[in-house]
């Protein structure tokens, strides 16, 4: 590996060839990291080194590093004697499936990956380059927060990152990958980005760590139970993707990038599709029960209708009553939002509303069409939901749909009741096309509930209340809930054979691919928060 050179001034003033040899030695030293012991400690934790991670993430030989010779300028607390090159973050650009991306990656072996002034300026640089070049930005996070020895300059570095996160929001895809600790203010940059990945057992995110929690509240909790991948993947909803190990995580990041445009001025990349666009879906006839009270797995419906059954789900472990993810129809990327009858009967609640709103906004920002598969009995009732702000949170989903200008297609499979029907991209809030299966029930509420409201007194006074209720239920269903009621009033464009679902959606998406939409002039809307 050669002699470790610690200062540029140590380089001998010899011939050009000798200087090139010394440069090579210096670069090899930078590439290998601070010490073999530090690398061994990283591996002992089940973690890859920073450059091993880049080798997995990026196409082979494509990485171009910037500011590898950067050193901090801080003094005090012994920092003047510890000035490693890179300052604990490797930054540059490379390719994923031949397309450019910018990337920064913390090196936990130096200062625990903590952010100081020089460290932050390197991240600022790649963020600015990503914006200028119009390419995705990826952060590989494995750091202990702000470098305390540098004081407020470290905090100011975070401010510069956050400002850029917001400025680039909706302009380029921003992906943060949690591969180790991410504490304090450092957690806000991932929260401001578009996509957050976490690795089980090694990644944690929290504003205040276990020691602070214990000191303030007396509660004892481990770092993993406080802010590990399981917590953020299934409880808080901070992490959209949870992976078992680093290699599989970085491979998932690569796959996500293959579905996204480089920036908001481009369409998502399309591929040649060998799965026939008009392939019938006769399996759906048995997969989805006609009885609206019987559950089924909407994931199986999605896998049946998309190209080759490939579906990339977001937030799979959180708010499972709503499914969100990306797939392709005839090679073209499409966002799918679907109620999940297998979980809470597919109702909308606070978490599902937030999940759907965030996903819809992402798709709209990056020119990804939306398909909504509707089978929703309503919003979840209860004091917890009402006091928790279901009105405000449900309005987020409604606002996101209404504001989206990408192609929007809805497909009502079975029930679609009340306000939840309206919110799930009905024609009345701007869906471009709306289709339904012959099992659809679009109504203010279910027939049983409607009969109880409309004919309450009559049923109560009847000699046989059970018979009277059943008769009125059937009457309401026959008059207002038959499969063609909405179609007769122009609220559904067609009632289709479920076996033609894929062909219908593919043709509709093809028609709308060149859709143009104009918005009123305004600085920005004021969505419910």
Automatic annotation (TrEMBL):
Protein name, entry field: Methylmalonyl-CoA carboxyltransferase
Span of domain CoA carboxyltransferase N-terminal: 16-272
Name of one Pfam family that matches: Carboxyl_trans
Secretion signal span: none
CoA carboxyltransferase C-terminal domain residues: 276-523
UniProt cross-references to InterPro entries, sorted A to Z: AccD/PCCB, AcCoA_carboxyl_beta, ClpP/crotonase-like_dom_sf, COA_CT_C, COA_CT_N
Superkingdom of the organism of origin: Bacteria
